[in-house]
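so my prof wants the structure for this chain in the tokens format not the other one, which i didnt know existed until like an hour ago. anyway here's the sequence
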Amino acid sequence: MSAAANSLSVQLLGPLRVWRGDKELAVGPPKQRALLALLSTHRGTVVGPAQIIDGLWGPMAPNTALNGVHTYIAGLRRVLDPTRRGRDSGGVLLSAAGGYELRLPLESVDATQFVQQFAEARRLTTEGRSDAAFDTLGKALGLWRGEALAGVPGPFAAMERSRLREMRFSAAEDWIAGMIAAGRSEEAIVVTSEAIAQEPLREKLRCLLMLALYRCGRQAHALQAYGEARSHLRDELGIEPGSELQELHARILAGRVDDGVLRQLAPPSGPVLVQAPSPAESEGVVVTRTGLSPRQLPSRAHMFIGRDTELEQVGTLLGLAHSVRGRATPIFAIDGPPGVGKSALALELAHESSACFPDGQLYADLGGTGDRPHPPFRVLGRLLESLGVSRTALPVDLDSRAMLYRSLLHEKRMLILLDDAVDMEQIRPLIPQGSACVIVTSRRPQRGLVARYGAHRIGLKPLAPGPATELLGKLLGDAGERSKGAAVQRLVELCGYLPLGIRITAAALLEDPYASPERLAALYEDPVARLDLLAVAGDDGMSVRASLTGSYRSLPSETAHLFRLLSMVGLEMIGVPESSQLLGVHRSEVAAQLELLADLGLLERIGAGSYRFDDLTRTFATECAEEEWASGRHSVLRRSAHAVPEEGELRTG
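here's what i got, hopefully its the right format
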């Protein structure tokens, strides 16, 4: 190895820095820095151009990527080998058959030193040399200066950051356990608290903090630490603590914490991954279960009828996408008013096309119409766990989770169904690159998906009268004559031809042996009664009122106010001028509010700038207006009852 190589050192465990002796070198632009990080991690190994392109750009590499590699290699040689001439075989960065090799000694790269020392500490532990293992871990952790590869761009850097971070906290856990075993619990509390602030989802760190607190005689604080851990896990992931945390909590409550608990938290005896994988294989860095093929689709709807055109359209587009090698599978964005059957269509599409995606199907309910839509950070955590990433290895920021998610799905033939989305801010981190197919459902048209990703929008409307009547008839099945006739046609009309209302109606008829379409249709003629009846007890997902409420609650206050006002004025056709007069605001502002109501299915568009209510939505809007009025009147009366007269004011009663 050359003298130049022996005098170089590369620091990756923090911002990337390169030194020749005591002098820091200017590495160059971001992509050149990313290339040096990749080559340093694979020191002594030939790295091919394809591997470099994958590591620096990923699947969206430009056509000029190979020229870029040559440029960055030349730039690195000027930095690392300033005295090298022409094709001289000596030096640090060499050209070899099939690629490039960075020749540096092991001790010249801090990340390589850290990995080796971590592996050595694990070996010493298995040999029973705990003191030596503890000292080695201390040296390894002392190499860190911040987040690994901070500021270095590209897929490889993102994956290497995740790998090294996981190993860093595993080493920290082993070191903390060693501190507690040595009777240094007070120090362990400080170190563990700092680590938890950076990795709040690592349950082993929580166990170690509880144990250290207990060893210091702080049983109440140990129990409080468990409560904080449980609250955080439930808020972030919607899960309860694992068995280790729960068992330690029970032991602390019972006062039965012994050395056996610490042995359970001791470092595992298995080997540590020392050699960094290539970018194409980097999923294995954090994936603990390989070969996963998740099958997460919920069951499809019973008796799916009336969307033949949409099914045929999607089938054609999928066939076209798969016939063109390297072409990304399309994204389908399904939108429509409440109860129109968006999720049912999405599930039908997903099940029908599942054979096209042998690597599996992922499903995520984004909770868009609930009180608290699910943030993409949490959704990505669940999807990554479904792809085999252990909970403790989940990245702690949104961008890193999104990069890991895209990397794991690269070149995977997988289908992802994102149900009940809110907006692009929620959806964007969940869109992978490559050959995965994505189906998104939302009440609002996701125009950003169309503009940004070329998504195919499917705007659903209520069923046509024929298919709607056929759906109710087939749902009734053996109910014989009850599934035929004018009463059934009237029922589907009163349901607004919405699949949700039709399914609820069928359930009501099948549940009551004395019910008849004629009697139920007569009850439905009253819109208020109809809204009450179109619900299944105990199932909020099968309620027209609950479905409308989800859209109403998402409205800004001024738009909700307009929605209530419009229900009270009795206009058959709603336009911008009339609405502007009602609110006393500029027409452009009212136009935007009417468009939002139409986007959410609370008004129906019937022309340019023209809208109308259907019977059920008008009834619901009237209820909202009456409830708001009653609430406001109650507040006024309550304030009046508690008002204190000014001094000298006549008191009555």
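also thought this was worth mentioning. Confidence is low (pLDDT under 50) at residues 269-291, 633-653.
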